[in-house]
Structures are given as structure tokens and as C-alpha cells.
Fold this sequence. Notes:
With about 675 residues, the chain is of the alpha/beta class. It is built from 24 helices and 24 strands. The strands form 4 sheets. It has an 8-stranded mixed sheet with strand order 6-7-8-3-9-10-12-11, with helices on both faces. An 8-stranded mixed sheet has the order 18-19-20-15-21-22-24-23, with helices on both faces. The protein has a 4-stranded antiparallel sheet with strand order 2-1-4-5, with helices on one face. Strand 7, helix 8 and strand 8 form a beta-alpha-beta unit. Helix 4 (about 110-120) packs parallel to helix 7, helix 16 (about 465-475) runs parallel beside helix 18 (about 510-520) and helix 18 packs parallel to helix 19. The radius of gyration is 26 Å and the shape is globular. The model is unreliable at about 330-350 (pLDDT under 50).
Amino acid sequence: MTANPLLRIENLHTHIRSGDVTVHAVNGVDLHVDRGEVLGIVGESGSGKTLTALSVMRLLPHGGRVAEGRILLDGRDLVPMEEKALRHVRGAEVGMVFQDPLSSLNPTMTIGDQVAEAVRLHRRVSKKQAVLRAVEVLDQVGLPAAARRIHDYPHHLSGGMRQRVMIAMALACEPKLLIADEPTTALDVTIQKQILGVIDRLRRELDMGVILVTHDLGVVAGYADRVAVMYAGRVVETATTDELYGQERHPYTTALFDALPERAVNAGEPLRSIPGQPPDLSAPITACPFAPRCAHVTDRCRAEYPPASVEGTGHVYHCFVPIEHVAAAPGASAGRASAGPAVAPPAVSERDAPVVVELVDLYKEFPLNRGVLQRQVGTVSAVAGVSLSIRAGETFGLVGESGCGKTTIGRILAGLERPTSGQVLYHGDDLAGLRGAERKRKLRGIQFMFQDSAAAMDPRMRAGSVLAEPMRVQRSADRAARQARVEELLDQVGMARAAARRYPHEFSGGQRQRLGLARALALRPELVVADEPVSALDVSIQAQILNLMRDLQRDAGISYVVISHDLSVVRYISDVIGVMYLGKLVEVGPAATVYESPAHPYTKALIDTVPVADPPIERTRRANVLHGEIASATNPPSGCRFRTRCPIAADICATTEPPLAQLGPDARRVACHFPLTPR
């Protein structure tokens, strides 16, 4: 810490009062951020990392208050400040990028007006000058055609563009400190890399301090200077990024690293999750809060809270039984194993297993309507000639950037959309051509697991009714049989039977995802389509859900289609990976082969941008960014659709569309005139 850090938090206690219960959400946090420094804050959901950041802004939820401590910004204490004075600090001196840009932006205002509003609030400028500043800062964050886009509304923009607008609003007045709360959680890896690059570039240009709140340890490895690990409202360990990732001392930090998918793939074993649940924070905790879940716990850990231990250049941890590390062999890296070429986990099924579902030359186009009368002015090419097959007991991973068509394929498989043309063959029967009761009966065998489990459940229905609903709709069982099946489903997904009486909002994110999986299994399907099943979960809960999915697959022989932008997840759980770009399948093959030796330039670009929990490696990969925006699906490029962003494109790529052709003897197919792996 410098003599005068930009931000210093001392003994921060934040309480949230709800009815008669007071939650001690933040318990004695001490942190600092220097000018030009990036501090990463990591931990499970509920660890207090977001509430620590919100305490700085004094934007706490209803019933929240800073009960004790100091928050010093350039030497001024923000805690006793009146609301009027704080309004001049927010935006002008401290900017914040919220986790969900769509719900944080005003849907009734253009993005130009929203960015300009922040400028006019804190600077004495005219409306014209504020708009010019809005265009300037939107251009700074890399929004394409910023001068034209200022007239768009939030719903006109992609997720990555909305996140850029949020960053522009936060930086419009050039604040001293930027707080970014999960800024890339819902974004695919290429957009994530671009957003983080924008924040890092502006941090250097403005000498701005940054607090990066995230559960993604790979993101922190590449962009943070120091890391603070939080658990149960406390900072349990803090150190420089290199030191923490190579020589972590707290068992909780080790448990977070061990839950990473790449660790399990490298070892060829199930994911390691942290046993038990985080503690109840409605009462003060005097002992080590991690003791009930720790493999190294002692009686002393259960009796008192460990004082701070300091090593090296400010490596601080709170643990009586710190992790010991064996010195690395000469020439070997002392850090944690990276996610390089890996041995794939044992295949769930053999390639000669029977085909459950086959897509044949599938097309899906959506009408593009405009004007008051909503006249059709064009079409959106969501899926364009996709053919693939899914075998019994197999997991097919479908990856690609947002807008590539992977969710549309999932919805077509589950019968939620009808294809424009092509066939969806389920045991030889074309689902696209079926109608009425026969279609309804056939679709029982294919179920959908939604990305947002909270939005997919009726908030007025108890969990038991949510799980019984598919059986009631299909009239597949009487009331007693439905009740018995609900209890069986709760047992299968590792939840107490008493959970059937609770409402969706009473569950954590991981528990709701378990309920979403249980609901998809209610009718005993052969195929479950899982759309981003773990994208919003921290690494430990993610590990629990992925292990559960594999256990159920092994026991019941279920097939999965896993749709995700997280290639580490897809690599771990999949037998086969299919890579999509702008409605086309550009590469498909065995998961290990595709990941270790990508043949399509787009596949390689995706893999090169996957964040890994190894700081030296991640820093060298900062330049691995897939530049440019995905082309418009209303007017796709001629020939190869990827050619406008491809580093090796040639004239033939603009005139001739490459077929999805066999590459080598390992059942891999690639659509490229110049595959990276020779034919």
C-alpha cells in the first residue's frame, strides 16, 4: 500500500435488516486500492463481495446500512456523508458497472441520452456538449458507429454492446475509481475479452483504480494486480495475483481453485466442490466461519477467529492451519497447473451407440418487421443448414458467440420453435412434421433446462407444484404418483423433500438450478437440452451442478445437449463439441480433439480467449482477441460467413461456401477452405 492510497476501507461492517432479522453481510473488512491498480475480489455467492462494493457507493438494498468502519476516498470518509454530498461523489469520482446492464439501463431513453445525463449531472455543460462527450466516451469503449448508435434504445443492442454503454456511463466523468461488479458474467469469451481489454486500457490512460468483483478466477488472473478472497463477509486472504495463484495459504482459496473445470479435466476426475453450505450470517460468528467445511479444521478453529498472518510482500491470511506448498522442481513453474492440452474425462458413451436425435439440413429464419403496421422487410438467418446427431448417453456441447444460433437449435430440439425447413428426427420420426397429440407425446422424451431458472419458474407456485406440472400437463400420473415422483426427483438432485413446500425465491441460485434440472427430468426424458446451465454460478456451485448432471447421465443413460459460451465447462462435460458461427456449424468432433487441436480459425480464436487461472499465461494471452463484430444475420456475408473476421481468409472464401467435410480419421468435420490441421 502506498502512503496515500486512493481508497482505504477500515473495519467495515455492513448490516441488512429484514423484519426481525439482521444479516451481518460484511464483517470487519479491511482493503485498499492504489491509483492505477486493479484489485480483484473473489468468493462464492453470498460471501459479501458485491455488498462491500455497494457499501463504497452507499447503494445498499432496502434495510442496509454501514454499521461501523471507515471508507476513505482520497482521505475523505464517505460513511458520515449526507446523501446530497454523496450524489456528487457517485459518477464524478466513483463509477460503477453493474452486473446486469439490461436491467440497469432505462428502456425508455436512448443510450446517448443516458450517457449524456451523467455528464450534465456532474459538469456544467450544454446539452449539445454532453451529447458530444457521450459520443466520445462511447467511441472510447469501442461501441461501433457511436455517433449513429446514440439514437438506439438498450433493447436494440447486443449484450456486449450494452455492457460497453454501462462502462461509458461509469467513465463519462473520468472517475478516480471504477467498481466493476461481474462485468462479463453473461458474455461469451470473445466479448468478455474485449470488455476487459477496454477497462484495462482506460485504467492505464486515466490512472484509475479498479475494483473487479467476479467469481471467474481466470479473469482475475489476467487483469488484477492483487486479489482479496472473501468468505462469510470477511477477507480471508489477500496477496498479489502471482503470489496468491502460486502459493495460496487459506484452505478456502485452495478449494476454489480445485473446483475449476480445467483442473478436473487435467486429472481425469470429477469436479471438486466445497462440501456443506456457507454459514448463516444472521448471527455474529466468533470462530473461523469456514471451519464446518474445512478438511484441515482443528478445535481451535471452532473456538476462535484466526488473527491475520503476514508473509512476504503483504500476503495476509486468516488461518490456524495454512496450506503448505512443495517447492517446484528446477525449471518448472511454481504456479498452478494451466489449462493447456489435457486428457479428456472418460467418455460417457461409445460412438457406436444408437442415435437418439438427428438434425438434417436444418434452417430457421425469423421475420424482420418494421413500422407501425409491422410489415416484413426481411428475415434473420438464425440457423442455416445445420446437420448433426446426438447418441444415447452422449453429451453434445454446442458453443459459439451470442447470436450464433445455438439456443435456437436447442429450442427447436425441445419443440419450442418450428424449423423453417429441414428435419428433426427423433428415433426416425420427423418432429417438425408432427401435429397435435402425437407431437405432444413424442416431445415428452426431449426436455429443456432454461438458463435463468428463476424466470423459468412461476413465483406463485411452490417447488413441488413446479416439479409436478409437466406430469399434470401430460396427464401421465395420478396425484399420488406425481407426489411420489416429486420426492424421487428431489432425492435425485440432492435436495431435502421439505423443499417441495418452498417458493422459488426462497432458494439460492444453485438450488434453483437443481430444481430446473429436476423439472427437466420429471417425465424421464431421453434427451435434456441445457441452455447455459451454470453460466451465472460461482465455481463451487457450478462444480456441484456439473457433477450432478454427469451422475444422472451415468445412472439413467440420459443424453445432453449443453449450450454454453464457457468452453472450460463444455470441454469438461462433453463427449462431442460442435462450434457454431452465424447460424452455421463450422467444426464438430470429439471434445478432446477439437479443444487440443482446433481445425477452424474460429474455434482456435474461441479457445485462445478462454481465461485460465494462471497469471503469467493469462497476461501473455491478453492480445488474443477476436476483433470485429459478428456480421448481421439479416444479410450474412457471401461464401464463408466467418471470412470478415478471419486472419487467413482468401478470395475463395468470399465466393465459395466451404462444406462441412471430414477431416482425418477421428470423426471430425470442419467447414474451412484452409483448415489449421491438414486433411
